[in-house]
Every structure is written in structure tokens, then in C-alpha cells.
Amino acid sequence: MLRRLTPLLSRSCSVLKCSIYVTNSCSIRPLYKFQMDRIEKILLADDDIEKKIMALRSEVSDVEARIIDNILIERLEKENRELEEEIQKYRNELTQLELANGRRQIAFANILQQSKINEIISTKENAVEEKSKDSLAPQNVSKTDDAAYNVESKKVKKEQKKGDKPDKKKSDKSEVKKDGAEEPPVDVGRLDLRVGKIVHIEKHPDADSLYVEKVEIGRKEPITVVSGLVKHIPIEDMLNSLVVILANLKPAKMRGITSEGMVMCASSDGVVEVLRPPSESVPGDVVTCSGYINSPDAVLNPKKKVFETVAPDLKTDSEMIATYKGERWSVESKGFVKAQTLKGANIK
């Protein structure tokens, strides 16, 4: 019986050993993983702690530097106060010594006031001296000096008579300036800008880049305008179109043909566009600029350079409308003067 039970017992023991080993191995793996996760968390926390420590150290160093600066500032302010007190003390002692020696004390607000007072005193003294010399001069002269003095006095009288006579040339000029109206300010109001219609156009016979245009601007006869737009605007776009003309330029010859005005255009980076008035405009309509009085010169004087002064402030705005210093050009009750596509472009 025992012989039969022995092999059974040995088998059961081996089965038990295997089961114990399996259970032990299964329990160790999750425990190892758990421990590693904890270690990683501890390391991360350690890094965060170190960063916080470094930040705190920098803050502490900044606070210490501020405290030291404040301490130094307080010391300097204290030393300045002490120095000011010492200076005032020495000033008081100096004034007492000067008063004891008979020196008069004058309180000046500042050096500039002192210099002004000195100038006033010196001018008064000079005036007194001149008066005294004048009063003494005729009394202390000899006979020869007396004769010379008389001659000089006669000369002075003659000069005074001459001075009393009005200088015709000077007086005439001054009267012209006084009688004439004051010259208006140099702005866009000095330009005679008008709506014009090109009724005839052809190329200049002696210049390939120039047009010769006949433009109606409300006068009895069309004016002649020579413009260098051949390379920029087709001739068919110019004919019978409405444009803006600067009509008070001094007439000038361009390749043998006299030009009496200028077609106003916007230009930017080599692109040129003719400024167009409102479609309802008619030749002769005046183009004005809001905020500026329209008082054009009869003819712009080239020496005064009115247009050259105004031109840098002539531009198109973000809506392609012509402006002067941001104020828009318009034809009264009809609309604004515009370019076709150019924004922020110069006008000339």
C-alpha cells in the first residue's frame, strides 16, 4: 500500500512546487513595474524642486540687490543733505564776514537776472557819460576847434534836411507794398485747377514722347497744352476725355510749341494715370480743395516757385482721390477728382 502511495505523493509535491514558482513570478513583475514608476515620479519631482529652488535663489538675489541699492541711495541722500547744510552754513558765515567788511549783499534770483541788471546799469552809465560830453563839448573848444565844430554842425544840418526830403524811389515802392493786397499763403488755393475737355490731340511733330492737345477750359478759345504722355496714355483714351488742367502756369515753349497749361496726373513706380473729374463736370468747372481758399494767381511767377512748394503735398489717398495735405479735391456738388488705380501716388 505504501509503495503505491509514494509515487502519487512525489507527483503532487512537484505540482505544488510548480504552482508556487508561477505564483511568485507573476507577483514579482507588477511589483517591479510599480517601483520603477515611483522612482520616475520621484526623479521628476526632484527636477521641479531644483528649478523652484533656482528661481527662489534668483528672486532672493534680486531682492538683496534692491535692498543694497536702497541702502546706498539713503546714504547718498543723507550725505547730500549734510553737504547742503554745510554749504549753507559756510554761506551764512561768508555773508556775515562780507557785511562786517562793508560789502553790500544783493539777492539775485539767478545769473541771467544779474547779467540783465548789469547791462541796464552799463547802458544808463553810458547814456549819462554821452550827455555830459555833449554838454561840455561846446564850452571847452578853442577857436580852431570852434570853427571845425561849426562846419560839422552845418554838415549835420544838411544831412538832416536831406533826411527830411522823401526818397521818391523808396516811397513809391513802399506805397506799392502798402496799397497792394497782402500776398496769400503758398498753398493749393494759388493754383488755377479747372476741368478741361481734350477736343483735339496729335503727336508733337518734333518729339515722339509729347502730345499736343487743344483743351476747352471754359474760355472763348481752347488752350494749347503740351504733355509728355505718349508712352503712358493711348491717344484714343485722351481724345474727348475730361481732365484736370493747371491753367495759370506761365506759357512756355516745348520743342517750338507754346504750352499754356498742364494735364494733372498721378504717378507711381513708372505708372502714370490722368486725374479724372466727376463725369457730370463741364469744361471750366473749378476744382477746389476743402479747407483752403481758392484764390489763384493770374499767372504763377516762376521765381516764387509756388507750384514747386505745393507739389510735394499733392497725393492720391487710399480711395484714389486727389488730395493736398490730406484734404480732397472736388468739383462743387459734383464729386471728387480721382485716379483710376493708383493709391498714395504723387500728383504732378
UniProtKB/TrEMBL annotation:
Top-rank taxon: Eukaryota
Keywords attached to this entry: Coiled coil, Cytoplasm, Protein biosynthesis, RNA-binding, tRNA-binding
Sections of the chain in a coiled coil: 66-100
Pfam families the UniProt entry points to: tRNA_bind (PF01588)
All copies of domain TRNA-binding, residue ranges: 187-288
Gene3D superfamilies per the UniProt record, alphabetical: Nucleic acid-binding proteins
A Gene Ontology molecular function term of the record: tRNA binding
One GO CC annotation: cytoplasm
Primary location group: cytoplasm
Localization, UniProt: Cytoplasm
Compositionally biased residues, Basic and acidic residues: 161-181
Provenance organism: Nezara viridula
Gene Ontology process terms (BP): translation
UniProt-annotated stretches for the region Disordered: 129-187
Upper taxonomic lineage: Eukaryota, Metazoa, Ecdysozoa, Arthropoda, Hexapoda
Classification via PROSITE patterns: TRBD
Protein name (database record): tRNA-binding domain-containing protein
PANTHER family tied to this protein: AMINOACYL TRNA SYNTHASE COMPLEX-INTERACTING MULTIFUNCTIONAL PROTEIN 1, TRNA-AMINOACYLATION COFACTOR ARC1 FAMILY MEMBER
